[in-house]
Design brief:
11 helices; 66% helix; elongated; 412 residues
């Protein structure tokens, strides 16, 4: 009889009371709430200010390369006093401003994508924290349930020991199991409080709200070709923008090898005579022709190109790895869901009943109860890891800003 019950309990061992992705309450809001919370975080605010600073820097690149120069000259020639007032302007002969305007375009892209990367990374961090919190919360409920069962068992054992139905050894086993449960419960509760504190730091207005990702929203990401996804990732786009910026920096350095002329126009008095002057000046690159600056900028451009290809390659393989991992979790998670359907969720009552009528000993009862709890916790952890793998794929493919999520309110 005991062997039959053991096999039955092993079969239902993965039954878990978890935050099932397919069995959630009516959605009340979506990722908008999460993003509104994320943008309040000081780290995201700092990234936003950095983005604005870089956007201003991009605007400055579009301004004129040279400003006009106002000049004056006062003097005397014999008894006559002279003065002139003139203006000088250096001509951007090689159109360096055009190259700087192209730099501005990619500087803006780099600034915006860098900010988007911070937001998505912070969103992934918050989602993982919420998933961990829900998993630990479910584990806490299971352990508390087992603790209550052991306390009830201990009371029953005490009464049956006094009546001579059970021996003192049964009471000692119940005491030991309960004492072990206290330690496990304390650790889980402490872990739960720590993660609640960390979520409060990430999400200022959080009130025990959970985020659940709906399967139809992200199914296509698993089977999407990685090459089609990689170029949309902010990390790759930033690396590409930096490459383009360095290419135009090398172009500007090349143009600086050619001297820009300056022209000046002045008017004044020489005694009683009016004076009009026109001047032209051209720098002579005799001591420094700026060729080394160009070589340095050209090498930096090639380094930025290599870095872009390295970043893209790394992100491509990260996407492939996340897709492969999620496929495995998805396969096992579906098996777990199928295993859960139609199973007896009151197996602990059956177990207690069998112990009560003497079909199993106290030792067997306690051991099986622990195995059952371990199996339920394993189910919770499977879903936790499955959802974390999903978030990692969404982060690796830059889908967190576009994927819809569902939020539900849960009891404290």
């Amino acid at each position: 009889m005991y062997k039959c019950i053991s096999r039955y309990l092993v079969t239902i061992g993965l039954i878990a009371v978890t935050i099932s992705v397919s069995a959630i309450e009516k959605p009340q809001s979506d990722f908008l709430w999460l993003k509104q919370q994320i943008v309040k975080h000081p780290q995201v605010l700092a990234a936003r200010q950095s983005m604005k600073a870089n956007l201003y820097q991009a605007d400055s690149l579009e301004k004129a390369t040279y400003n006009p120069l106002l000049s004056t000259d006062f003097g005397s020639e014999g008894s006559d006093r002279t003065y002139t007032l003139g203006i000088n302007q250096t001509i951007d002969w090689t159109n360096k401003r055009g190259s700087r305007k192209q730099q501005a375009v990619f500087t803006r892209i780099s600034a915006q994508k860098s900010y988007a990367l911070v937001v998505q990374t912070k969103m992934a961090e918050a989602l993982n924290a919420l998933i961990n919190w829900q998993a630990i919360k479910d584990q806490s409920q299971l352990i508390t349930q087992q603790e209550n069962q052991l306390e009830n068992l201990l009371e029953i054992v005490k009464k049956r020991t006094k009546s001579g139905d059970l021996g003192q050894l049964d009471a000692e086993l119940a005491y030991l199991s309960l004492s072990q449960g206290f330690g496990q419960s304390a650790r889980v509760q402490a872990q739960l409080r720590r993660i609640e504190t960390s979520i409060g730091e990430l999400l200022p207005d959080w009130n025990k709200r959970k985020i659940a990702l709906s399967q139809p929203q992200w199914n296509h990401v698993i089977d999407e070709i990685a090459e089609k996804l990689v170029d949309n990732h902010p990390t790759v786009q930033v690396a590409k923008a930096q490459w383009e910026i360095s290419v135009f920096a090398a172009e500007i350095a090349l143009k600086k090898k050619k001297a820009d002329p300056s022209i000046g126009l002045g008017a004044g008095k020489l005694g009683r005579d009016d004076v009009l002057t026109l001047s032209l000046s051209i720098p002579l690159y005799l001591r420094n022709n700026f060729s080394l600056q160009y070589k340095a900028a050209d090498q930096q451009a090639m380094a930025s190109e290599a870095n872009y290809h390295a970043v893209r390659r790394k992100q491509l393989f990260a996407i492939k790895a996340s897709q492969a991992a999620l496929k495995e979790y998805n396969k096992r998670f579906k098996k777990w869901q199928n295993l859960m359907q139609g199973r007896d969720k009151n197996s602990e009552n059956l177990l207690q009943k069998q112990w009560g009528i003497g079909d199993i000993s106290t030792t067997e009862y306690l051991l099986t109860l622990q195995q059952r709890t371990a199996g339920l916790i394993a189910g919770i952890q499977l879903e936790q890891e499955y959802q974390s793998a999903l978030i990692q794929l969404l982060l690796d493919t830059a889908q967190l800003d576009t994927t819809q999520a569902q939020t539900t309110e849960t009891l404290k």
